[in-house]
Structures are given as C-alpha cells and as structure tokens.
Amino acid sequence: MNVIPKKDFIRKIIVNAIRTHCKHCGTYQKRLRQCILKIPKVRNIVQDVNGDKNYRMILLNENVTLTKDQNEFIASIGGEIETNYELKLGYDHFSTQEILRHILPDTVTEVPSHFETVGHIAHFNLREELLPYKKIIGDVIIDKNKNIRTVVNKTSSIATEFRTFPMEVISGENNLNVIQNESGCRFKFNFADVYWNSRLQKEHDTVVKSILASNNKANEVVCDMMCGIGPFAIPLAKNGIKVYGNDLNPESYKYLVDNKKLNKIVNDKLICSNLDGREFVRKLRNDGKTFTHVLMNLPALGIEFLDVFVDGCMSDWPENIELPFVHTYCFSKSSTPQKDVAERVEKVLGYNPIQNYKEDVRIVRDVAPNKLMLCAEFQLLREGDLGGVVVDVNGNNNDDDGSDNNNNNNNKRKMDDDKYNNNNVINNKKMKK
Ligand SMILES: C[S@@+](CC[C@H](N)C(=O)[O-])C[C@H]1O[C@@H](n2cnc3c(N)ncnc32)[C@H](O)[C@@H]1O
Asked: What are the sequence ranges of the domains in the chain?
C-alpha cells in the first residue's frame, strides 16, 4: 500500500443527544460527565438540529443508558432527548495505532506503538516484519503529528565508536539537522553524526541541577570527559559553572562549539576539546588544571576510563584541594546491579570509594529487559584518605603490614548484600558542596 487510505475511515455512528438551552450546558457537563461523548477531536456540544441559536445538542456516548435519576434531572431543566443523532467520523478521529492496525495486514501481530522524537524527527527501531511497510508507517506518523517532518529507522543496532547508529529516512524531508531544546538550552546537531538520546533528558537535568545547587557554586569546575554535543556542559556553563568539555567525535566537538555560541556562553566558561577521554584528563592535569566534578557518560566503557585517575596524573593534585567527585555511567545485567557496579569501580581504582552502594549507585533507566543504566557517584580518594588501607567489597582490609583488621578501620566501606533499593535521587548530602 503506497497511499494512506483515508476514505476507509469514514463512518457514521448514531448516538443519543440532549437538546437544551445553551445556558444549561455547563450543568449537564457537571452532572452527566460520564455519559457525554468522548471521541478524540470530536465536539460533543454541537449546534441545534432545528437551527435555534439559543439551543445546543449535547451528544452522548454510543450505547449509553441513562438512569431514572438522570432522565428526571434532564426533564427538570427542560432538556429533551433526541435519538438517532447522526455523527460522521473520519481519518482525523482515529488514533495512529488504530490507523496502522487497519493498514497493516493481520499477519503483523504488533502494531508499532512507540517512537522517540528528536527535534522534527521521529525515530523508530522497526522489527523485521514491519520493514516492508516502513514507508506507509512513516507517512502516517507525519500525517498525525504536526511537529514531525522526518521519520527515520535504525538500520542496525550496532553502535559505532561514537555511539551513533546507521539510519535511513523512511518518510518525509531528508533532513537530519535538528534543533532540540533541553534544560533551558538549544542544541543543534545532525542526528546521524553525533550521539543524542532524548530519554536522557531527565538524567541530564538531574545532574545539572544538583551541581548548580552546590553551596560552593562559584568554585565548581566540571570536567566532562565524553560530553557529546553538550547536554551537561552547555546548561552548566550557561548557568555560570566553569566546564572543560571533551568528546572524541570531531562532529560532536564541532556542534559543541556551535552550541556554545548558540547559547551565548561566555568564552572562558566552556573550554572545548576533541581528544580521547583519558588523554583529555592527562592534558588538563599537565596544564595544572583542577576540577571538582568529573562526568563520564560512556556507559559501555565508562568504568574502565576510571583508570586514568590512578595512573599517576593525579599525583601532583594540590594538597589543599579535594579530589573530584565522579559521576560515571555504566550498564549492568547483574541481579544485584548496584553491587556489581561498586565492585567493578573498585576493581579499576584498586580501592573502594563507595560508602553505600544502594545510595551511591543510582539506577538511571531500563535499557533492555534485564539491563539497566546506572550512575556511580563518589569522591576519589587519596592514599592518605584511605589510611593506607585498600578495602575490597567483601570487607577484607589489606593493611600495609598484610594483616587483616576488620574491626578498627574508619575507611571500611559498607557493602550490604540485601536486594538493592531503587534510589533514583542524587543524595545531596553525599554530593560535593
Ligand atoms: C553515550 S554518549 C554521551 C554523550 C553526552 N555526554 C550525553 O550525555 O548525551 C558517549 C560519548 O562518548 C564519546 N566517546 C566515545 N569514545 C570516547 C573516548 N575514547 N573519549 C572521549 N569521548 C568518547 C562519543 O563520541 C559520545 O559522544
């Protein structure tokens, strides 16, 4: 099928209606709310069938049976029931799902019900069985959603190094240049060339707000190691936080610079780089830069990148400045995902910086059945903070002298084996202020 068969949706239904003086319409709406017709985009109060300007017809749901009380109420204010009111419905009155169900053959068991939007683009990940119908599906989406001008479908679920996905335009304008609003900022980018995920809007906002809420806002400096086109970096810098923003993808870097201009960010508030994340941190340290927060949103590898903080580049960190507070994203398929993440963090750092994994490892969202995205948030520790003790998640303390000492160690991190709590709020007490 090449064209949406709009004529197929024309139909007439017969309903009952109350003919009433227009001054009573509000009273009926209150008293008979459950009975009054509810069909999307269909008026339920219409002109009088007899053309009297002072009268209206209040349409009732199909097959509704009024109670004795309701009939008496209608009569008491002079309403009359008209049976056989003919109502014409068409394509506009049907939902996208209903239209697709009608168009797609019965062999298609599940009609696509969900898509992501990015600016003017609707973004699908269509199942194999729907691919022969991709064009008509796209056409319906554009027809039914006035803000959508382009529909794309992912052609492979295998992400590139830059976390972009191959995609094809299945309907509408061949234009992937997007303008998207988020966290009070505007972002422009090409959807095929850079990473963007509208589902992270809440997470971006949560982290941005938590840093902006710091009591020490004037001294906060953020190092965003994989900043993409800037969903953390741009709103932070726009709100006065100094940010070092970096991404390996040259296209992300280009749009980061463009978005800095677009959002009128003061020059020295956002310093943009196009380096590998580890190289970027080493360069900042080489240049004597310090920072209070590190953002690492590359969930597939994020935890591994923590090794840069124990490879020597932090050794000359000034004595009088605390080490930074890290927010590192990751995935877990474990049945105890927060504990799993805490263990992986410890493995890379060689010590456990997480005090209570139920609070310090937040669940961000479900990404697939049995796969979560999480964010581990903790302060990096100096050797001195550890008291010379490296603690593993099982609570075994390896003192310098090699003896076990589980009872007398302030730095022992509590690792609880209970099933995790879904604590989706950043624990501000633990956040660096
Ligand atoms: C999941 S995206 C996150 C982007 C952005 N922070 C956000 O929240 O939307 C991961 C980003 O890491 C970048 N990236 C991949 N490998 C990298 C590396 N070795 N160093 C720095 N950035 C890298 C990708 O280009 C991509 O923009």
From this structure: 6-93, 96-175, 201-398
The CATH fold assigned to 6-93 is Alpha-Beta Plaits (3.30.70)
pTM summary value:
0.81
Residue 282 pairs in a beta bridge with: none
What is the atom index within ligand 1 of the atom nearest the CA of 249? 25
**CATH number belonging to the domain at 201-398, selected among 1.10.1410.10, 1.10.3720.10, 1.10.357.20, 3.40.50.150:** 3.40.50.150
Q: How many CB atoms lie within 10 A of CB 181?
A: 10
Domain boundaries 96-175, CATH class:
alpha beta
Q: Measured between alpha carbons, how far is residue 368 from residues 200, 212, 365, 372, 373 in Å?
A: 15, 31, 9, 7, 9
Can you tell me which atom of ligand 1 is nearest the CA of 197? 9
In the structure, which protein residues have their CB atom closer than 6 angstroms to any atom of ligand 1?
A: 161-163, 195, 200, 225-228, 231-232, 247-249, 252, 276-277, 297-298
pLDDT confidence of residue 423: 38
Contact (CB, 8 A) for 283 and 275: yes
Sign of torsion, CA 46 50 55 58? Answer: negative
Sorting pLDDT into bands at 50, 70 and 90, what band is 401? very low
- Ligand 1 pocket: which of 208, 247, 307, 373 to mutate (most atoms <8 Å of CB)? 247
pLDDT of residue 158: 73
Q: 163 alpha carbon to ligand 1 midpoint, in Å?
A: 7
Looking only at the bridges linking them, the beta strands covering 293-296 and 325-332 are: parallel
pLDDT digits (tens, 9 = 90+) for 315-363: 999 999 999 999 999 999 999 999 999 999 999 999 999 989 999 999 9
